Automatic annotation (TrEMBL):
GO MF terms, alphabetically ordered: cysteine-type deubiquitinase activity
Every OTU domain range: 99-233
Native source organism of the sequence: Ceratina calcarata
Pfam families, per database record: OTU
Protein's name according to its UniProt entry: Uncharacterized protein LOC108625589
Taxonomic superkingdom: Eukaryota
GO biological process: protein deubiquitination
Length: 233
């Protein structure tokens, strides 16, 4: 990893990423997700777990949320998708504590939906969050441009902005880290250990001990993937 800082069912697999710009509209049309390679962890075993220091959750700083409080969010006629997944009560353990899984809808927007749920307790702000993250990366291209190039092979910020702004475009861990950092959160991404109710942390971006930690569960292998939210039990 680079050091930057109606009912519908969840698709079981997400489409393998090929050439980005050529296939972006196609991915949006079929409502599947593209996967950023994070390696295969299907064969993780308990012996591979390395103990780490516990990370204590604290109240997040909502600086940017306050800054953009003028953004109007019409939720009066929206249902929280969490109601669809109340049946998921699995408890997963790791060095940082015990967590339960909150399922996120899989339509290519799962990362932004997950962070939206952590910030605002619903997934419906994923479009707003996506636009904020993309604009922040474009405005700070001198900092993020090299990582965008490494992640997406895109060297122009306007091309990147047009691509990542499309709803349904799967976001990489770069956008995930930027989203968490913008809203003053640390970020931990976990994998579930095969056949065990245990987690292995595979990505950790620490910003401050004073910040809350957003915890996501990533499932799938190098050809497919999906983000869900981990909530403290």
């Amino acid at each position: 990893m680079h050091h930057y800082h109606s009912k519908k069912r969840i698709p079981e697999k997400c489409v393998h990423r090929t050439w980005l710009l050529k296939n972006a509209k196609r991915y949006n049309r079929i409502r599947h997700e593209k996967h950023l390679d994070r390696g295969d962890f299907d064969d993780i075993h308990a012996s591979d777990i390395r103990q780490t220091k516990p990370v204590y959750r604290r109240e997040p700083c909502r600086t940017l949320d306050d800054q953009f409080s003028s953004h109007t969010r019409n939720r009066s006629d929206k249902r929280q998708r969490s109601n669809l997944f109340e049946k998921d009560t699995a408890r997963l353990r790791c060095a940082e504590g015990t967590f339960r899984v909150h399922n996120i809808y899989g339509d290519g927007n799962c990362m932004f939906r997950a962070i939206s749920y952590i910030l605002w307790q619903n997934e419906d702000e994923h479009r707003y969050l996506r636009s904020m993250v993309v604009q922040h990366i474009k405005d700070n291209w001198y900092e993020y441009g090299p990582f965008v190039m490494a992640e997406w092979n895109i060297s122009d910020r306007h091309i990147y902005g047009n691509y990542m702004s499309m709803v349904g475009t799967f976001a990489s861990e770069l956008e995930c880290i930027v989203a968490a950092k913008m809203y003053c959160m640390n970020l931990s991404i976990y994998r579930k250990i095969s056949d065990r109710n245990e987690l292995k942390r595979v990505i950790y971006n620490h910003v401050s001990w004073h910040y809350e930690t957003a915890r996501l569960l990533f499932t799938g292998n190098s050809d497919s993937g999906h983000y869900d939210v981990l909530l403290p039990d």
